[in-house]
C-alpha cells in the first residue's frame, strides 16, 4: 500500500441531489367536504417535502454561530473511500464552487447509517462540520501607549471586545472525509474581508510518532502588495503577528495551582466536574508557562476536550533580526515579498497523550476479520478533531520583546518592560468560544509503514523481479530511515508562466522523463504534488496521476494539491508574484516526508539533478556523492544551473 496520508487518488464524492421545483396551482373549491380534505392532505405533503429538500441542500444565508456544545453531529452524505483510481477533478471542481456556502443550520442531523462500533472507541463517534468563525477587525481596540492614564494603571495597550454574537460563521460540510480532504479543504475558499488573524491553512497532519499535529499555512498578506493594495496590506497585517511568539500564562484550577512544564498540555478534561482554565498574556517571563506560542489547540473526541498551546519550530522573529531587517512588516504600499522567509508559517500543536492512541493504525487494534474489514472501510473517517484559535495581539513592528527575552536569558532576569507596557497585568484572553477560530478540523491517521523498493532495483524503465517490501517506521531510531534520498516536485498538466503570458501543456511527457531519470540515478522515492485541478478546462481527470501510477507506489507517491497561486505576476511588477501553492507544497513535503529520508530535494520537472560520481558498477549515482558528504559532515548541498549544450551523442 501507499504511504500517502491525505486523500491521494481516491474516488470523488457522490453527485449532489437534484431538486426539481414544480409549479403550485391553486385548486378550485370542491363541492364536498371529502374533496376538501383530500386537497389539504396533498398540499401538506408537498410543503413537507419541500421543507425536507431545503433542509438537505446547503443554502447561503447569514447566521449567528451556535454555541460550541450545540454542534454535535455532522451533515450526512460523505462517501467512503473506494479503490484508487484517477480522481474526477471536474466533478471535484464543480462541487467546490458551492462549498463556501454559509449553512443555515449547523446543528447536525442523525446519520441514516450509524457508524460501526469499534473497540476502545478508536474512531470519532460523531461527524462534525468544519467551520470558520470570523471575528471582525473592529473587536481589537488599540490605545496610545504614551497615554498616562493607561500607563499609570498598568493597563494593556489594546483590548478585545469580542463575543459569540459578534462572530460570523462559514461552514464547509464536504471537508470531512479523509479520502478526499485534500481536494475539499477550503484553501481557495479562505474567507476574506472579515478576519485578518485567521491562519491561511494549506495542509496539516499528525507527526509520525503521533505526539503532535503539524500545520503548514501561508502569509496571506504577501498576495497583494504595492502602492495599489494599501488597504489590503493594512487589513492583512495581523497575518505577520502569527509569526511572532507571545508569552502566555495558563491558570488551570484542575492542576491545583502547580505550574506546568513548557510544551505540556493545558486545559484538562472539560465536563460537569472540571473547571475551565484561564489564559492570559504574561507580564513577565517568570510567570509565563509558555514563552513563545500563538495558537490555542483545542482537541476533542467522545465528550473529552483538552487544550494545548502551539509550538514554533524556530523563532521567526530572531531569524528576521539575524538577517539585519529592521522590522517584520513593511508599511502598506511597500513590497513585503522581499521577506520570503516569512511566507510559510509552520507550527505544531502538541497532541495530548490521552488522544494519541486514536491515531493508531486500525488494523493493529482489531483481531477478527469482519471487524478488520469495517475498520479499513472507516479509516477514511477522522480520528478526532481540533479547534485552532489564534491568540490575537497587535503586530510588533520592532524587536523590543525579542531584545527583552535575549537580555533575560543572558542576565538571568525575568522582567520585561515591553510585557508590562503593552500587555499590562491580568490581561485575560477571551474565551475560545467568543474568539475567531477554525473549528472541527478533522484529524486523519497516517500509515505506520512505508513501501520501499527492492534493494537491487534500478528502475529507469524496467522493473526487477523482486517485489517491494513493507517496512515499519521506527521513529525512535533516527539512523534507520527507510530512504537515503527523496525528491519532491510541484507540477500541473498545464500551467501559465510568470505573468500569465505563455502556457505550458506538455507536463505529462516532462514528468515521465523526469521521474525516469531521477530514479535511474538512485533517488529512492519521489513525491508529486499535483496542481492540475486549478488549470484544467476540459476532461475530468489528471494525466499526471496516470503517470505516477505507472511507476508503482514503492517509487512514487501522488498527492492531489488543488491550491491556486494567489499572485502569478512577474517579479518586476508593483505587486510581485507570490507562488503560495508551490511554497506550501514544499513545506508540506518537507514536514510530511522529511522524517523518512536522510536527504531531500525539491525541484521542478524541468530541472535535473545530475550526479558527477560513479558507483561501483560504473553508473552515475547520487549515493557516492552522499557518502562523501557524510564523511565531510555536510548536511546542505547547493546547486547552480548549467548552461552547457546537450551532448547529442548520448541522446536517443
TrEMBL record:
Biased composition (Polar residues): 454-469
Chain positions covered by the region annotation Disordered: 75-120, 253-272, 449-469
Keywords: Glycosyltransferase, Membrane, Transferase, Transmembrane, Transmembrane helix
Single annotated GO MF: glycosyltransferase activity
Pfam families: Glyco_transf_92
Localisation: Membrane
Tagged with keyword Flavoprotein: no
Biased composition (Basic and acidic residues): 98-110
Record GO cellular component, one term: membrane
This protein's record includes keyword tRNA-binding: no
Protein's membrane topology: Single-pass membrane protein
Segments passing through the bilayer: 37-55
InterPro entries referenced in this protein's UniProt entry, alphabetically: Glyco_transf_92
Family: Belongs to the glycosyltransferase 92 family.
Matches recorded under PANTHER family: GLYCOSYLTRANSFERASE FAMILY 92 PROTEIN
Protein name from the UniProt record: Glycosyltransferase family 92 protein
Native source species: Pseudo-nitzschia australis
Amino acid at each position: 500500500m501507499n504511504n500517502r496520508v491525505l486523500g491521494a487518488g481516491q474516488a470523488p464524492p457522490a453527485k449532489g441531489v437534484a431538486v426539481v421545483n414544480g409549479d403550485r396551482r391553486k385548486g378550485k373549491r370542491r363541492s364536498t367536504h371529502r374533496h376538501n380534505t383530500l386537497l389539504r392532505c396533498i398540499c401538506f405533503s408537498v410543503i413537507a417535502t419541500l421543507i425536507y429538500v431545503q433542509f438537505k441542500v446547503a443554502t447561503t444565508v447569514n447566521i449567528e454561530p451556535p454555541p460550541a456544545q450545540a454542534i454535535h453531529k455532522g451533515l450526512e452524505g460523505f462517501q467512503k473511500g473506494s479503490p484508487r483510481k484517477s480522481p474526477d477533478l471536474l466533478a471535484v471542481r464543480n462541487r467546490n464552487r458551492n462549498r463556501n456556502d454559509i449553512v443555515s443550520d449547523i446543528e447536525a442531523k442523525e446519520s441514516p447509517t450509524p457508524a460501526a462500533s469499534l473497540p476502545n472507541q478508536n474512531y470519532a463517534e460523531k461527524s462534525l462540520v468544519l467551520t470558520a468563525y470570523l471575528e471582525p477587525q473592529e473587536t481589537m481596540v488599540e490605545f496610545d501607549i504614551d497615554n498616562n492614564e493607561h500607563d499609570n494603571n498598568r493597563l494593556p495597550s489594546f483590548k478585545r471586545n469580542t463575543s459569540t454574537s459578534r462572530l460570523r460563521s462559514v461552514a464547509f460540510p464536504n471537508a470531512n472525509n479523509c479520502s478526499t480532504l485534500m481536494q475539499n479543504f477550503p484553501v481557495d475558499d479562505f474567507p476574506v474581508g472579515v478576519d485578518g488573524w485567521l491562519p491561511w491553512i494549506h495542509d496539516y497532519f499528525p507527526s509520525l510518532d503521533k505526539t503532535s499535529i503539524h500545520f503548514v499555512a501561508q502569509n496571506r498578506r504577501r498576495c497583494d502588495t504595492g502602492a495599489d493594495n494599501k488597504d489590503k496590506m493594512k487589513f492583512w497585517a495581523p497575518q505577520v503577528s502569527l509569526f511572532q511568539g507571545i508569552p502566555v500564562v495558563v491558570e488551570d484550577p484542575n492542576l491545583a495551582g502547580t505550574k506546568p512544564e513548557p510544551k505540556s498540555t493545558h486545559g484538562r478534561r472539560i465536563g460537569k466536574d472540571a473547571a475551565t482554565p484561564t489564559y492570559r498574556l504574561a507580564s513577565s517571563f517568570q510567570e509565563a508557562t509558555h514563552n513563545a506560542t500563538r495558537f490555542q489547540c483545542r482537541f476533542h473526541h467522545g465528550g473529552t476536550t483538552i487544550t494545548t498551546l502551539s509550538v514554533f519550530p524556530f523563532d521567526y522573529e530572531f531569524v528576521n533580526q539575524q538577517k539585519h531587517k529592521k522590522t517584520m512588516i513593511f508599511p502598506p504600499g511597500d513590497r513585503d515579498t522581499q521577506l520570503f522567509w516569512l511566507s510559510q508559517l509552520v507550527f505544531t500543536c502538541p497532541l495530548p497523550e490521552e488522544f494519541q492512541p486514536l491515531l493508531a493504525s486500525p488494523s493493529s487494534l482489531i483481531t477478527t476479520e469482519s471487524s478488520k474489514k469495517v475498520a479499513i472501510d472507516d479509516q477514511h473517517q477522522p480520528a478526532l478533531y481540533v479547534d485552532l484559535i489564534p491568540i490575537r495581539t497587535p503586530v510588533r513592528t520592532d524587536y523590543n520583546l525579542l531584545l527583552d527575552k535575549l537580555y533575560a536569558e543572558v542576565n538571568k532576569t525575568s522582567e520585561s518592560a515591553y510585557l508590562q507596557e503593552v500587555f499590562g497585568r491580568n490581561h485575560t484572553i477571551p474565551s475560545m468560544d467568543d474568539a475567531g477560530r477554525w473549528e472541527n478540523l478533522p484529524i486523519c491517521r497516517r500509515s505506520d509503514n512505508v513501501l520501499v523498493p527492492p534493494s537491487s532495483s534500478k528502475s529507469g524503465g524496467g522493473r526487477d523481479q523482486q517485489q517491494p517490501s513493507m517496512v515499519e517506521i521506527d521513529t525512535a531510531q533516527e539512523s534507520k530511515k527507510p530512504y537515503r534520498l527523496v525528491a519532491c516536485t510541484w507540477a500541473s498538466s498545464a500551467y501559465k508562466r510568470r505573468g500569465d503570458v505563455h502556457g505550458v501543456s506538455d507536463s505529462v511527457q516532462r514528468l515521465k522523463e523526469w521521474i525516469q531519470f531521477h530514479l535511474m540515478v538512485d533517488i529512492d522515492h519521489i513525491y508529486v504534488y499535483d496542481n492540475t485541478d486549478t488549470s484544467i478546462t476540459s476532461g475530468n481527470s489528471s494525466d499526471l496521476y496516470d503517470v505516477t501510477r505507472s511507476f508503482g507506489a514503492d517509487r512514487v507517491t501522488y498527492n492531489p494539491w488543488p491550491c491556486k497561486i494567489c499572485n502569478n505576476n512577474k517579479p518586476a511588477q508593483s505587486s510581485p508574484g507570490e507562488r503560495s501553492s508551490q511554497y506550501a507544497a514544499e513545506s508540506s513535503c518537507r514536514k510530511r516526508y522529511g522524517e523518512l529520508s536522510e536527504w531531500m530535494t525539491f525541484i521542478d520537472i524541468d530541472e535535473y539533478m545530475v550526479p558527477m560520481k560513479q558507483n561501483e558498477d560504473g553508473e552515475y549515482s547520487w549515493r557516492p556523492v552522499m557518502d562523501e558528504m557524510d564523511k565531510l559532515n555536510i548536511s546542505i548541498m547547493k546547486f547552480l544551473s548549467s548552461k552547457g549544450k546537450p551532448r547529442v551523442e548520448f541522446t536517443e
